[in-house]
Every structure is written in structure tokens, then in C-alpha cells.
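Example record

The entry below shows one chain as it appears in the dataset: sequence first, then C-alpha cells.
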Amino acid sequence: MRKREYLQSVGEDISFKFYQTPTDFVVDEISSTEFKGKGNYLILHVKKVELTTWDMIAIFAEYMAVPAQKIGYAGLKDKHATTTQYISVDASYETLLKKFYHKQIKILSTTRHSHSIRMGDLAGNRFSINLHFVDNIDAGKIEKVARRIAKDGLPNYFGYQRFGRDADSIKQAQEMIQGELFIEDSKLKNFLISIYQSVFFNDWLRDRVNLTLENNETKFKILEGDVYLSDAGNLSTPKIMPTKEYESKKLVPTGLLCGRDIFRARSDAREIEKKYDDEFLQEKGYRREALIYPKDIECTYVKKQTLLNLSFSLPKGSYATVFLESIAGKNYSAKDVKAKDAKAKAKK
């Protein structure tokens, strides 16, 4: 997989560190559902620390003595962080859950709803991330470029987390698609297919970003034949390039996650897209927004700690680390953001 390229950054003269720890990396899920306050399902707003979503689900399942599949959730949250999210269980467990205790999980509130939470039932996530070793001048530059990215758009790459440590899952995915590796487990097979699609998407997006940079532009260059997603959720390829609608964010250009039964680009846009397309892949294809727009950016600088807290909201399926990469103008890996103790931080 090639390097992720970006349109805007603070430049090579500025650097900062961030760590995926419970105090430095906080994620709050933004639900897309307005819970009714009545119904046969209990909605739990939960906070977890240093646990994956699956770990948390397993703990609740064991406590209630139910299969994990009986617990609904909207999305997966980082392990090395403090995160909040919504889960659903049958309302008959309400009394039992009043006595629930776990040192890494806290039930913040409960309500009722008419149906279980399903995967994807979220609008996005709110992030609060501490950037370390930032002086007050650089803090201003970071905030300025963050707001410029929010205005012009952030390339919507899949982050390094998608591909596993040392990108080992990419190799597995390629071997499976080429018939060199047999995978029996259906969940693992579907996961590896999504990895295969994601690599193509990221490489396509890199080419499109580089095309923009070659034209000395900082706003993603649109091409004849691009496929757009409207704010109503519809895909289309307008006959006339929709510059006005694009600039007003009513239409967002998309990239291909290759597979069957999916709308493909045309004309100039297709010339680049077809290099990252596997038309023989039998799994369902999708289109993913090429750009996203971070919202509600807030910056708080703590001079004594040379710390800048950056808070922002992103739509579902996008990565906070991609936003940080764009600001820094560099790629990160799991190794770069590994939790460090206070002494290790001080030596950096």
C-alpha cells in the first residue's frame, strides 16, 4: 500500500505527538437515532476504557447470560482510548443491569426504544485528542490549517487501523482473492475482502490527490464522469460538471470500493478509476465519499504542558488519525501512537 498524500498541512517545520491513551484520545459516538423513551429495548449509553467494543459486548453478554448477538451496537470503537457509545439489550434485563459493575465500563444513562440498535445506526463521532509538544505559535498554525481542511475537505482515506499491524492483513487479502489462501471462516473472509477493496480505494484516492497537487490546487480536483453522492444519499454522474453544487457541499465526489452491482465512473474519471478496479470480484461493491468535512472544531491550548487539545466531529466510517495526518503532512502507524508512560513522553 502506498503512502497517503494530503492537500494541506502545517509544513515540515512543525511536528507534534499524539498517543492513543485513555486520557489523550477520547471518542463519543453521535447516534443517528432519536430514542423514543418507550419500547421493548433498553438503550444503554456506556463509557469504556481500554476495551474494544467486542470486549465490552462479551462482558455484558456474560453478565446477562445471553449470546453476544443479542446485544445491538452501531459501530466499533478504539481500544486504546476512552470511548462512549450506545448499545441495546432486551428491556427485561433492566433491573439486573442496575447492579452492573465493571472497572472499565460505566453505564452513563438508560432509555427505552422500539427496536434494537443496528450496525451503522450512527451519524458520526466526536473526538477530543491531545497533541503534545506544541508551542503557542505552532498551536495557532495547527488550528488555522485544521479549519482550512474543514472548509475545503479532507481526503477520506481508510486509516492505518484498517489494515492491521504491519499491514499483514493486506497480504492475506491478496492471497485469498488470488486463490492462494483458503479461508473457511465467513467473518474473516468478509473482513479480508473489505481490506482488498480498501487498498484499491486508498491508492485511487492518492492518485486523485496527486492530480490535484500537480495542478497547484488545494481543493480536490473534480473530473468529467465523477460519481457524486448527494446530501439526500443518492449517487449520480451529472452530464455537466456540478462545480456550484460541489463547492456548496451538496454533492460530494466518491471513489469505488470494487465489486458487483455498483455504479462506476465514466469519461476522464473512469480512466483513473479503472486502474483500481477488480471487475471480476463477486462481492458487492460500494462507493465511498472521496472527501469529508470535519465539523465543530475547537482548540484549547495549555501553555504549561505544551499541549493543544483538538476537538472535532467526523461522519461515520472516517478516521480521526487521517485528519491528524493531513494536518501534520505525514503518515502514522500503530507504532507511532503506541501508549507511552510519562517518562517516555518527557524524553521525546
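Notes for this example: The chain has nine helices and 14 strands. Residues 41 and 91 are 5 Å apart (CA to CA).
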